Amino acid sequence: MHSGFLLDTCFVIWMSQQEELAPPSLLALAESRLNNVPVFVSSATAWELAMLLSKGRIRETREAEDWYRDYLRGGGFAEQQVTSAIFITSCFLPQPIHKDPIDRILIATARTYDLTIITRDRAILAYGAAGHVKTLAC
Predict the structure, then answer these.
(1) Which residues are within 8 A (CB) of 85 and not within 5 positions of it... i.e. 6 or more apart?
(2) What phi-psi label fits residue 4: left (phi over 0), alpha (psi between -120 and 50 degrees) or beta?
């Protein structure tokens, strides 16, 4: 039985904008619903989405909080809070790890809760290929 998935921020953006996603990631999400496997979005993703909206790098007609909450509700996703333990763990991940702090937090979250990160981020996928975190390309 799979323990669950964690959606990368880019996946959240692409999915909410109806961008094309890799069939294996869509199949994994469909099967997770059928098998009651949880799918999470990190609270760090809420921050990252709000930053992108505030800088005009993505466009949305709703307020950031409404967009984020609607996305969670509409997808049946749960929010995974970032705890102090995850913040600390993100500073001590196995090397080599890239420097993006949000990606480090997502990786630490996935490792802490035994989740598979669904992402297109090459650095996270490479980290997964090295055996440091479970990943699925979207």
Answers:
(1) 112
(2) left
Report angle CA 52, 122, 21 to the nearest 5 degrees.
70
Residue 2 has what pLDDT?
67
Walk along the chain (138 residues) and give the pLDDT tens digit of each residue.
468 999 999 899 888 877 788 888 888 888 998 999 999 999 999 999 999 999 988 887 888 999 999 999 999 999 999 999 999 999 999 998 878 999 999 999 999 999 999 998 999 999 999 999 999 998
Start-to-end Cα distance in the chain: 21
- Rounded Cα distance between 74 and 119, Å, is 20
Element (H, E) at 6: strand 5-7
Q: What angle do CA 119, 55, 65 make, to 5 degrees?
A: 70
Angle between the 9-16 and 64-75 helix axes, to the nearest 10 degrees? 80
* Angle (CA) 81 91 88, round 5°: 45
What does the alpha-carbon distance between residue 15 and residue 137 come to, in Å, rounded to a whole number?
Answer: 14
